[in-house]
Every structure is written in structure tokens, then in C-alpha cells.
Amino acid sequence: MDILGNIRTWNRVRQTRKELSSLSNRELDDLGITRGDIPFIAQRASRR
Fold it and tell me: Environment class of residue 9 by beta-carbon count within 10 Å: exposed (0-12), middle (13-18) or buried (19+)?
């Protein structure tokens, strides 16, 4: 079990969600995503 890796992943997901959530609906629409997509996108982005 890699605790430090888990913490880093959690932090990346949290930061991505925070940044995407700060965008306006118009900006999200320009990116082709909705607010409901944010958790899934953040989780996927953390795997890269």
C-alpha cells in the first residue's frame, strides 16, 4: 500500500475538481463538459 502515492493522487483529484469548478458554465461548455462531468474528469486526469 503506497500511502504517499494515494495522498498525491487524492490531492491531484481535489485540485483538478477545484479548478474546473471555478470555471463558468460558458467556459465549461466551450470545453465540452458539464458540471456533472467534473468528478469523472478529475478522477481520470489523476491516472495520467
Answer: middle
pLDDT of residue 47: 77
The string of DSSP codes covering the chain is --HHHHHHHHHHHHHHHHHHHTS-HHHHHHHT--GGGHHHHHHHHTT-
Question: Containing domain of residue 41, as a range?
Answer: 3-45
pLDDT digits (tens, 9 = 90+) for 16-38: 999 999 999 999 999 999 999 99
Contact 12, 29 (CB under 8 A): no
Total domains, the chain: 1
